[in-house]
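fyi for ur records
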Amino acid sequence: MVDYTLVVGVDQKHLEQLSHTWPTWKKHKPSLLSVPMVVFCDRHQVAVKDVRGVVDHPRLTVVEWPLSSFGEKYDYRLPNEDKRSNSQRYKMLAGFVHVPPLTVMTRYWLKVDTDTVAIASDDWIDPEWFDACPAIVSQPWGFTKPPDQMLRLDEWVKYNEDGLSMLNSREPLNLCPKVGKDRLNHHRIISWCAFIHTKFTVKAAVWAARTCGAGELPVPSQDGYLWYLAERLGFQVVRANMKHRGWQHWSAMRNVVERSREAMLQ
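which gave:
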């Protein structure tokens, strides 16, 4: 069986979501209670005691994010903010790159988003996913927004030639969107339920901190960044349909509440 730690990130909004979905995880995926769990919380919105008031995990570690050791060196402001790219979202996604290397002692860590509802099947992890020691095991996805994100990562690697020699030894992805399109269509992953190799995450965190600053990323997308690294380095990415493994992913709070209620009645 794969050795992993459950990792969750919360600000005020996502702690409220977790208060509805966490009971479904315990009910339908009780094996999660036997592995370590790390919750990093937005230090400006959520207190550690608030997290512990929602999450009654026997092996829980709560970490305040951004880390106090950063001081005030981090800056998550973005020039053009929208629903998909905004400073709060970026800050929390960056935590999924920088927190696991400091807190996870297992081979893999499992990211489950707070708007994810467990509905069935605790025997949901396929050991064959991990046969070739993949960098990522995650839900398949078919596009990237904004459409130039992968080109921006190519430019990031090129600009940091000396600090990213391992990446510069590999060819750029050159994933160019079609003119006028608001997305880049390609085969990638989305990480609402994803296993990430811890040593791979360490590399990602070191490269990001070295070139962008403490706690930051070259693009405001954790799964876009990690997928890019794995693809450029030739590391294996396993695309597993988590919806067939007893998980549902919802965005709107009303759906999270309603589907969680239904799951608890099953």
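The beta strands are 4-10, 37-42, 60-65, 108-112, 116-118, 136-144, 184-197, 237-239, 247-249. thats all i got for now
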